[in-house]
Amino acid sequence: MGEPLREASPRSRRWLVALPLIGFAVLAALFLLRLYGGDPSKIPSALIGRPAPQTALPALQGLVRDGAQVPGLDPADFKGKVSVVNVWASWCVPCHDEAPLLTELGKDKRLQLVGINYKDSPENARRFLGRYGNPFGIVGVDGNGRASIEWGVYGVPETFVVGREGTIVYKLVGPVTPENVDSVLKAEIDKALK
């Protein structure tokens, strides 16, 4: 009839058992490399070079500056000025860390600082700005998060630089920090101002 089947040697059996483990280890290493290997602040934005979203946002009621209500966001506000748009919320821990840096940045009269308050209660938002100082000349309320989606926001905080033509020229994912405020954000603002 036929030849009897030969059994695999013990050495080849070990390789057969180890092969799925090696495959799993390689896949796990690739997954971890992709998960922790990149800088999340360098996520590219499809909106760079495109007009800022044309979404008007209502003012944060009760937020007063120099005796007048701070206005909401009107897309026409971007024309002719370099703007820094910061998406923030009082419940966002990194937003608390970046607030003093934004207050300092708000002193630069060459640009306008615009805040988009994301899914926040008006009382908490006003309390937040009262605690750190309000660096924003404009504060739009995005209560349902729809406008932030149009801006391509992944999560708060995120900061955009909008050029004089009303186009987005830079996006910073994550908080403004002492490490990136001068070397990255101010450098992008200076480019937009030229």
Describe the structure.
This protein is an alpha/beta fold and 194 residues long. The chain has helices at 10-36, 93-105, 122-132, 146-150, 178-193, and strands spanning 64-65, 68-69, 82-88, 111-118, 138-142, 158-162, 168-173. A 5-stranded mixed sheet has the order 5-4-3-6-7. It has a two-stranded antiparallel sheet with strand order 1-2. The longest helix has 27 residues, at 10-36.
Chain-wise SSE layout:
Layout: H1 10-36, E1 64-65, E2 68-69, E3 82-88, H2 93-105, E4 111-118, H3 122-132, E5 138-142, H4 146-150, E6 158-162, E7 168-173, H5 178-193
Main traits of this protein?
single chain, 194 residues, alpha/beta, 5 helices, 18% strand
Short summary of the structure?
The protein is α/β, with parallel strands linked by helices. 37% of the residues lie in helices and 18% in strands.
